[in-house]
């Protein structure tokens, strides 16, 4: 893949102690898969001098100690790792989870479902079926602790962001735009349309695994009614059911 003469995958320097391995210039299923798989393999190899790694939508960021490991040495090792396999076709790492998150769609709790459905060319019932039946991948975490971006949705959901911000959506809000979902971990403004509401707790400071979701995990937003949602609000974790993927 090429962008302005660049051929992907590509390695770029980030500041004095970082490198970024990118597998594309925009979100795609293969590029996201590659970023997650590459980061998992890098962590598994446990190179001395690597202090941190993380994956984004299409890239793997590597922070290192430049007093221990030179830029040239790290680039050589990253080049070698990139050449080991076709990362765009790599398997996702083991240890991933499938999460079923109870979700109210529409109504007073998620008031923009109808608007989003119309933008996607669907009725509200068709929109609920599409959103709740699509098993989406956590493509990246960002914005607040443990907050996921999830995708990709069917092509009909390639709808634009709003032209103006919604001043506030609550913690647990499920919002949609550009074939992606975001599940809010905090109360915040957004330009994405609020289509569902959950009681999920994304950041659990006391837990062994503080973030409920991780890149590569899969999620189903199972539909429930408002009465069931009120009950879920009092259930630890918001009624999320999680199971290890094979």
What would you report as the Rg, rounded to the nearest angstrom?
19 Å
Strand line-up in the sheet with most strands:
8-15-12-13-10-9-16-7-17
Coarse shape: elongated
Count every helix, treating DSSP H or I runs of 4 or more residues as helices: 5
Number of strands: 17
- CATH fold type of the largest domain: Cyclophilin
CATH architecture descriptor text of the largest domain: Beta Barrel
Q: Ends: how far apart?
A: 31 Å
Order of helices and strands: EEEEHEEHEEHHEEEEEEEEHE
CATH class of the largest domain: Mainly Beta
Q: Helices and strands: which structural class?
A: alpha+beta
Biggest β-sheet, characterized? 9 strands, mixed
Mean of all residue-level pLDDT scores: 94
As a percent range, the share of helical residues equals: 10-25%
Kindly estimate the percentage of residues that lie in beta strands according to DSSP. Answer: 25-35%
Number of structural units classed as domains? 2
Output the CATH homologous superfamily of the largest domain.
Cyclophilin-like
Low-confidence stretches: none
């Amino acid at each position: 893949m090429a962008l302005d003469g660049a051929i992907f995958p590509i390695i770029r320097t980030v500041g004095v102690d970082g490198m970024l391995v990118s597998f594309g210039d925009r979100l795609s299923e293969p590029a996201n898969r590659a970023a997650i798989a590459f980061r998992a393999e890098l962590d598994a190899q446990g190179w001395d001098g690597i202090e941190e790694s993380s994956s984004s939508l299409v890239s793997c960021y590597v922070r290192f100690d430049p007093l221990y490991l030179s830029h040239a040495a790290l680039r050589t090792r990253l080049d070698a790792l990139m050449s080991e396999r076709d990362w765009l076709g790599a398997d996702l790492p083991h240890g991933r989870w499938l999460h079923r998150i109870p979700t109210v769609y529409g109504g007073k709790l998620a008031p923009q479902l109808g608007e989003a459905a119309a933008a996607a060319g669907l009725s509200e019932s068709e929109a609920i079926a599409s959103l709740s039946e699509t098993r989406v991948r956590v493509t990246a975490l960002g914005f607040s602790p443990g907050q996921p971006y999830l995708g990709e949705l069917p092509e009909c959901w390639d709808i634009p962001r709003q032209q103006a911000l919604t001043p506030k959506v609550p913690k647990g809000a499920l919002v949609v735009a550009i074939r992606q979902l975001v599940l809010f971990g905090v109360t915040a403004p957004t330009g994405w349309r609020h289509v569902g509401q959950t009681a999920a707790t994304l950041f659990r400071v006391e837990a062994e695994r503080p973030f409920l979701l991780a890149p590569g995990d899969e999620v189903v937003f199972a539909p429930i009614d408002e009465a069931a949602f009120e009950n879920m609000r009092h259930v630890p974790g918001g009624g999320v059911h999680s199971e290890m993927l094979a």
